[in-house]
Amino acid sequence: MSTPKNAQAADVAGRREAEQEMPAVMRADVNLLGTLLGQVLRETNSPGLFEDVERLRLATIDAYTDPTTEAFERAVAVVESFSTKRANEVARAFTCYFHLVNLAEEHHRVRSLRFRDEEANFPKKRGAVAEAFANLSNEIGEDKALERLQALRFHPVFTAHPTEARRRAVSTAIRRISVLLDDIEAVSSGGTEHTRITNKLIEEIDTLWRTAPLRSEKPTPEAEVRAVMAVFDDTLFTAVPNMYSRINNTIQGETSGRVKPVVTPFLRLGSWVGGDRDGNPFVTAKVTRTAASIASEHVLIGLERVALRVGRSLTVDGETTPPTDEVQALWARLRNADEDAALDIVKRSPMEPHRHVMLLIARRISATKKRNADLAYTTPELLLADLRTVQESLIAGGAHRQAYGQLQHLIWQVETYGFHLTELECRQHSAVHRKVLAELESGEPLSEQAEEVLEVFRTISFIQERYGLQAAGRYIVSFTTSAQDLANVYTLARAAVGQHGTLPVLDVVPLFETFDDLQAAPEVMNEVLSEPQYAARLEETGRKVEVMLGYSDSSKDVGPVAATLALYEAQEKIATWAQNNNIELTLFHGRGGALGRGGGPANSAVLAQPPHSVDGRFKLTEQGEVIFARYGNSEIAIRHVDQVAGAILQASAPSNEERNSAAAQKFASVAQTMAQSSREHFYSLVKADGFAPWFATVTPMEEIGLLALGSRPARRGLSVESLEDLRAIPWVFAWSQARINLAGWFGLGTALETVGDLDLLQEAYREWPLFRTMIDNVAMSLAKTDDRIAHNYLSLGDRADLSGLVLDEMALTRAWVVRIVGGEELLANKPVLQRAVKLRSPYVDALSLLQLRALRALRSQDISVETDPEVQRLLLLSVSGVSAGLQNTG
């Protein structure tokens, strides 16, 4: 949305945008996309739309750079001058603009990553894992460092939590524009090819503008599964082996490609999509079975395609690279099982034995996908054995480059994904289990819900039998409060299959979510060791245990500061429990995208964990908009996984563990003071009389439930008179929409003020990783707030006492964070992030003002959501647009 009509407006816009200090190449991308969007808006059949968009754009830029009330009121007046229809069009235009700016920023990130890889003198060329391996080798020796590298595990778990506000059609349109942005960068300006690509860009931006930004109905769980599969197909399947290869090349140097790789696959993908039924009645046992089938189909298609490509390119002949006896024996087995295909392959390439074998292996993978029992592999281990036979034969024949090239990539893919792609995890609330057990004990006919709960266990058995034990088996128990909650799962599984049936293999994982549950976690884990079935499974796994920690509900329970400190303490105690009981612990972090749900840079969070709580293993949830932001582009996905994996490796270095341990002890009294004072202040807000309905009034919390984000309901059933049953996602989402982000920072200012010692707090910021991560995350959260807009939202509730609490705490927190970090403003120490926030803020302001207009109308006595669909649509469009602008909303 660039190219204002008159020179004076252009001068204002240019001067304001120059203050954003974007790199020149990124500025060029933003200007190009904005200019083309402006052209699209001029060409619409809505006269004056472009001019109205420009009026609001310039007004919000002025208001952003001019803190006076008058500048802000001028922007409000522009919004109020629009008809409802025009307001909807303007909201849609600004949302389009955000999608394009986000794309330009992503494009620049990829450009920077490529530059880093190509620039010989770039200081971070080694990559995070390779750098961590080098540092670890210096501390503990290369042999021990290599052991840790090969035991490394990073386990992201994709969830369908509803925070991705974009339709898939919108995401697809954005990807097409992304490809064209790459293309136009590669051609000379002014030439015919440049003109062709520019015209195609206009066409695609026009399509984006004309594509309905809101889903007409909630996605089904099956649609959510397929959306996640798109990330696998488009990026992860090929990105992961490329990442392993890059790391290996850096560590092995010139010998890479000629000797056995030192890197073993450390990424494991998990998924709750189609398995998480906590509060989602639409996720049934049938859906879970379908999810496993879809995932298996996708990975087998990918493996077949790669095996075919490797086979067709493996044209080394039998004279230069003679096959081993093992390969010849393998060929004989494959040929006897698939004679016609074998004859055809030999006829086309008679002297290429390794190629023969690989092409028949590809046919066996295809047969596995089609469930052809005569040819299908029954397990991925059998496929791996065949691939390694081919690899060892190539090595024996001197063809090391072929053995450790694309064939090694295929081996890595099978090791990473198997035939199941993602480890599908089921989750259910502990209270549901107790209810079903009570029904079983009553002897009465079971309810439909109870039958469904039991059917899940039969489904897990089916999935394990068809796709392997890795395909499913982790069962998470939400709101675990006792060891009995875990034992109940085994009891239900037995009831499901009967006394003589085969039990599914289950790893029951407790999820500790509330403040009280986090504090009780070590005792619960100690007790569960006495449960016979849990103890038996413990021995089968080599004493491996997984414990999940909930960031969302603990933060909503006691506030973000107390929750962060309670989570650290819980991890510390659970890690000690694991060491005392000779247990290999994996902590599973239930983090969201927003700071109120444990969001923020994952690598920083990993390095701030307590000693022995990582030990080379890290598991976390990835959800909604975060999945596509981190894994939707191959280069960014590689960078993200490399950074987190490098942090996991570095976290267990003696120096890092000693630093965290020493800091935790040194600042223990600070932590205690902060936890207590922040919790008390948080309670003074959320436990105030009438807080819940006030919260629902001053934010679009209830209306967010109308936005078709995901299949799961936004609340577990209670009214706005109670926050107890409100899910953490809409709690965080609503505050971010109101430009307050309260869930990420409330209570911190009071906590810092209570400590009161600036020198001590600055020392803590330098030496205490957990504190530094907290302060940096809050700085990012506060940078996305706006006092004047926040005041307008809060005034909707007619509670000056509660509004004052929020605004005073916001100002206090901001002041302390700036003093601790240093500089004149938030994010002064993070210029790239500061630039991104400043780039977006005036445009987010425009959408916030449009949303406020809709909310005021919906809160008035004569207009309701039901009676004015255009106002409702304006609200939902603005929610989608603000989500795109802020990026980490839930």
Notable features of this structure?
single chain, 40 helices, about 5% strand, globular, disordered N terminus
Number of beta strands: 8
Structural class: mainly alpha
Helix content: 55-70%
Give the percentage of residues in beta strands. 5-15%
Strand order of the largest sheet: 1-2-3-4-5-6-7-8
> How far apart, in Å, are the first and last alpha carbons?
27 Å
Mean pLDDT: 90
| Biggest beta-sheet profile | 8 strands, parallel, barrel
Shape: globular
Helix segment tally: 40
C-alpha Rg (nearest Å): 28 Å
Uncertain runs are 2-20, 120-124, 714-719
Structure description:
This protein is mainly alpha-helical and 890 residues long. The protein has a domain at 664-886. The protein is built from 40 helices and eight strands. Strands 1-2-3-4-5-6-7-8 form an eight-stranded parallel barrel, surrounded by ten helices. It is globular, with a radius of gyration of 28 Å. Mean pLDDT is 90; it is low at 2-20, 120-124 and 714-719.
Structure at a glance:
The chain is mainly alpha-helical and 890 residues long. It contains 40 helices and 8 strands. Strands 1-2-3-4-5-6-7-8 form an 8-stranded parallel barrel, surrounded by 10 helices.
